[in-house]
Amino acid sequence: MESHVSDHVRIFDTTLRDxxxxxxxxxxxEEKLEIARQLRRLGVDVIEAGFPAASPGDWAAVHQIAQExxxxxxxxxxxxxxxxxxxxxxxxxxxxxxxxxxxxTFINASDIQIEFQLRSTREAVLVKAREMVRHARSLCExxxxxxxxxxxxxxxxxFQLLAAAIxxxxxxxxxxxxxxxxxxxxxxxxxxxxxxxxxGATDCIISVHCHDDLGMxxxxxxxxxxxxxxxxxCTINGIGERAGNASLEEVVMALHTRAAFFGVASNVQTxxxxxxxxxxxxxxxxxxxxxxxxxxxxxxxxxxxxxQDGVLKNRLTYEIMNAETVGLDGNALVLGxxxxxxxxxxxxxxxxxxxxxxxxxxxxxxxxxELCDRKKHVDDRDxxxxxxxxxxxxxEIYTLEHVQVTSGTGVTPVATVxxxxxxxxxxxxxxxxxxxxxxxxxxINRIVQRPNELTEFAINAITExxxxxxxxxxxxxxxxxxxxxxxxxxxxxxxxxQVYNGYGVNTDTLVAAAEAYMTALNKMLAARxxxxxxxxxxxxxxxxxNAPSYAVDTFGGK
Length: 558
Ligand code: KIV
Ligand code: ZN
Description:
The structure is a single chain. By secondary structure, the chain is of the alpha/beta class. The protein folds into three domains: 10-284, TIM Barrel (Alpha-Beta Barrel), CATH 3.20.20; 305-390, no CATH class; 398-540, Double Stranded RNA Binding Domain (2-Layer Sandwich), CATH 3.30.160.270. Helix content is 42%, strand content 19%. The protein contains 20 helices and 18 strands. The chain has helices spanning 15-19, 29-42, 56-69, 85-95, 111-116, 122-139, 155-167, 184-197, 217-226, 248-257, 259-262, 273-284, 305-313, 341-350, 358-374, 380-390, 436-448, 482-485, 489-496, 509-540, and strands spanning 7-8, 10-13, 46-50, 76-82, 101-108, 143-148, 172-177, 205-210, 231-234, 264-265, 333-335, 378-379, 398-406, 414-421, 426-432, 452-461, 470-478, 499-506. The strands form five sheets. An eight-stranded parallel barrel has the order 2-3-4-5-6-7-8-9, surrounded by seven helices. It has a three-stranded antiparallel sheet with strand order 13-14-15. Helix 4 links the parallel strand 4 and strand 5. The longest helix has 32 residues, at 509-540. The radius of gyration is 25 Å and the shape is globular. The chain starts with 6 loop residues before the first strand and ends in an 18-residue tail after the last helix. The site of zinc ion has 6 residues, from loops. Zinc ion (ZN) is lined by residues 18, 176, 178, 209, 211, 241.
């Protein structure tokens, strides 16, 4: 089913920009770096690392990614900028440390957006686009231009914008289906017409950028490739604004599995797909639905008798991809009770994990030993979960020292919890709840005393078997009253909508639930400190405080 192909489609990952922009997907600087490291392992061609003009913290994240990940053999590091001089300047300074840099600038192209969002005219937009591509190109050799809402724009006007961008030196032309409106046939026609009618377009890379509002983002992206596009903008697990962006794993596996049909290939290391998906989902606390194509838990499961019978006789009867190709072969038995430091270290290297310090490794080793005491066979999936837990970079404001719960039929669940603040005395409290998790969370809240709302709670067994490790992901929201923040109403709303996620792993589901909640609470309690830290990092790295910056929540004009 696989054939040799030569033509290359660039994979432009925007998980850290369009993905991170989606509600509840915000990541800290360390989390973004962790994802960027995995994107490099995955082999994407371009990482859109963020929108530096949004805030000093965003600028710092792009700058650090450029510094660490943007090595000469690494991916291109792109930064997004509206067609404003200050945005472009901030994007340029943020990507400076990268060996391969790209400025991605965009402007609204549809009449509805030009009139109501920009409060401008086509003529002014055309002038602005030309000037700003010229400015970007005076700084950077690699400039991408996007006419936003291209699929609802007047095609002739959009072509004029593209032609102006080409004249000013744009090297990639991205055609965003910003609101997820187009269909595969229409989108393919549009890409075809651009290549046929816009002077110079065939000398540029045409890029597709599709949102999934009507569930067609992947189909539209692939149709664009069939029509000549050679870059796909996508995100891990398809996260992104509203219904999300085209999912990276789906477009990549479609190109891989149907290589003969598409006749093009990407550079993505497909065996890194499952790990990338898991890392992102645990980082942002957004579980992957079991029936999600390519990376869902059931994507390779055969339940019906007829299918099982066929697969046992010959895998190809019902499988078009195999689990190993996407990196889902982690159930090979690996380590156990008698495995020592050496074995764990070798396993981590084989899994491609680097540890920053010996202390971090030692901590992981202790967790590994605890797990081996409870679970006979520890496989790659368990180890990945421990690593994810270890790599959460959670500020330890409170540590969980002890949790005990009584529950069952005919009794009211009651939990006793002991927490400790760094360098402080142990703090113990108890509470009743409607269930054991409720009781634990109430006991924790009696100690921490910070109003919050649990918005999501998910449990998953990492492996098969009764001794399986449970992973719990939670999301919470800060519900302090407006007066307690001391902020303006607009900033208060932004803060109140901020979601904090937590991840816990343990063979005891209730301990995993307590750990996950503590992680989320610690993140919430440390949010202000984290923001200040990111700002300090930005200033230390040369962020220019005098250049104006803009709010992230709108792409509107200045
Ligand atoms: O969807 C969109 O239009 C975008 C642009 C900024 C490229 O994300
Ligand atoms: Zn988008």
